[in-house]
Amino acid sequence: MKKTVWLLILMIIAAVLFSCSDNGGKNEKQNITGENDAEKAIAGAETEPDNSIADDLGQYDFSGHKFTSLSRFTAAINVEEDTGDLLDDAIYHRNRKIEGRFNFKISEVLLETGDMSDARKSLLTSDGAYDIMIIQCNDAFVYAQEGLIHSINELPHINMDKPYWNKWLTGQYTVANKSYFASSAADINSYDCTGALLFNKKLAENLALEDIYALVKAGKWTFDKFAEFGAAATRDVNGDGIMDNSDNYGYLAATRGIPPAFWIAGGVKSIDKDENDIPYLAANSEKFLSVFFKTVDIILNKNIWYQPEDADNLDNTERLAMFKSGQSLFMEGGFGDIPDLRDMDIDFGILPFPKYDEKQDRYYTRLGWAELLCIPIYCGEESLERTSIILEALAAESARSVIPVYYDKSLKTKHTRDDESAEIIDLLFETRVFDFGDTIWTWEIRDSLFAQIFQKKSDTVVSRLDRIQPTIQKLIDKTVDAFEKLD
User: Fold this and answer.
1) Has residue 26 been placed in a domain?
2) Which DSSP symbol is given to 50?
3) Residue 350: what are its φ and ψ, rounded to 5°?
4) Is the CB of residue 365 less than 8 Å from the CB of residue 428?
5) Which domain holds residue 337?
6) Is 241:262 a contact under the CB 8 Å cutoff?
7) Do residues 152 and 385 make contact, with C-beta atoms less than 8 angstroms apart?
8) Contact call for residues 42 and 420 (beta carbons, < 8 A)
9) Overall number of domains in the chain
10) What is the CATH number of the domain that holds 279?
11) Per-residue pLDDT reduced to its tens digit, 366-395
12) How far is Cα 105 from Cα 107, in angstroms, rounded to an integer?
């Protein structure tokens, strides 16, 4: 059995090495790459558990301080009581342990929608209401540009060299080498928003497909194989000549999520960063366009995708129902969606999205709309010290007691159905990619351009990119200028 705590250390240490070897330049191989090959990543490591994940913090007494977070409901950090849910209970006991250690109390105000007006009002009026905010990534970047939040580097007790801080992912959040956000083992939302490709094992067996796990391990799981298998699964079940939600498909996914999932899997970004950590539009590169047009060909021209009547609807209820009933070979799903399949009678497995071709150095995994941790600018020196101690302790304790539950029990045992999927989870978390064109400038690049072109099977992408490039460049210049002026 894998010793997950030690594996987490290996994962993040590997990520540190990746970030040190990748300067974000325009070299295609350096776009979003690490250095471990897929086979090594999947193999994992069998070793004794490491019980020394220590935060090296001293003794502090915060005199009953109410440590308050304004959190999006998808990124809650607090659980008020034991619920019987393995993950909830792990978070509950983590928080109570840290509270007792430093004599404070965690309080959380939850935002149930995407309305960030409460966060902005608090920041602009400096009302001191919150110690931290955990909010949508696009809003978080705006607040950073406006000077409304502290840099993560201003937190004196945060030790980014510790294994419970993810340097690889944190490095993807920077602009002009300014670091305002960080990801740690306490950042459960970044795990939930990690993309995966789920597949119906029974249907794959009935279709006599090659062993997909073996293809993944051999580095041969490619766009072409995905297209071949998806076409084999697509069938007009009732023979009425109309493909609707009563038929079988190769792939189920939300329209807007298809292009970024595949361009990231294909080793490219719509917005990349140069050797000086400056973002630039990369969607007009030859490689990016090759990946995009091949995605259109596979998904649309080969008719393997079930396109709902309301293609813009991100509600996954229909997709989940169809996948549970065995009507599709593959389905896009974030890790936050996997628990919804716990009552699925048909065995399913977890895969990375395929590589563009066998020459691609490794697999890549999309990190979608993750929430980001922000420290309000009105927090003074005393508050920053206290907050940094609490966040450091929460991250370390999460690595010890929460991630093992999330990683092993909630995913590898409770919801997935085989050892191969459990091993591939390691690979997916190691290869997460955060593309600004998918997450920060979502409307300008992903939704108003690529999602619409994709859905219409239009070949106007080059001309439209030419038209919008000045607008995108102005957006980039404004962002870079704002970050460069920050202290």
Assistant:
1) no
2) P
3) -120, 135
4) yes
5) 195-366+438-485
6) no
7) no
8) no
9) 2
10) 3.40.190.10
11) 998 889 999 999 999 999 999 999 999 999
12) 6
Q: How far apart, in whole angstroms, are the C-alpha atoms of residue 277 and residue 274? A: 5
Quick check: is 31 in a domain?
A: no
- How many residues comprise the chain? 487
- Please choose, from the candidates 242, 421, 432, 415, the residue with its C-alpha nearest in 3D space to the C-alpha of residue 344: 415
Residue with tokens 């006991």: 93
Nearest alpha-carbon partner for 280 in 48, 70, 473, 43: 473
What type of residue sits at position 311?
Answer: A
CA triplet 381, 140, 392: central angle to 5 degrees?
45
| CA–CA gap between residue 314 and residue 104 (Å, rounded) | 40
Amino acid symbol at 316: N
- 264 and 292 belong to one structural domain: yes
Same domain, 187 and 200: no
**361 with 379, same domain?**
no
pTM given for the model? 0.87
Contact in structure between 193 and 39 (CB atoms under 8 Å): no
The total of other beta-carbon atoms located within 10 Å of residue 245's CB is: 14
252 in the same domain as 214? yes
- H/E stretch holding 213: helix 212-217
The reply to whether 224 and 344 lie within a common domain is yes
Residue type, 469: Q
- Same domain as 184, residue 305: no
pLDDT digits (tens, 9 = 90+) for 158-216: 999 999 999 989 999 999 999 999 999 999 999 999 999 999 999 999 999 999 999 99
Give the separation between CA 259 and CA 270, rounded to whole angstroms: 10
Task: Return the DSSP state at 309.
Answer: S
- What is the rounded distance in angstroms from the CA atom of residue 320 to the CA atom of residue 334? 12
Name the token pair of 382. Answer: 């005393």
Pairing mode, strands 65-72 and 104-111: parallel
Q: How far apart are CA 125 and CA 132, in angstroms?
A: 15
